[in-house]
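Batch job 17 of 40 flagged for manual review because the log was empty.
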Amino acid sequence: MTLTVELEHASSGEWIAEVMELPGCMVVEASKAEALAKVEALAFRVLADRLEHGEAQPEEMAVSFVTTAAA
């Protein structure tokens, strides 16, 4: 499973990071590195929650992140 992280540098100076394949998986942080770290951690929490609630199948899963800039 490849998850796409879209990064945007807001005019306020904050960084917005969003995982496109997981609706609502978004963070706003002061630095790019912090935004990336926190959104990836949030994505793993969302995936774990889906497994726990039967919304995803418990099979071997490989996750990778691809970062893109917002258009």
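Reviewer: the log was empty due to a logging misconfiguration, but the result itself is present. The mean pLDDT is 91. Unflagging and moving on to job 18.
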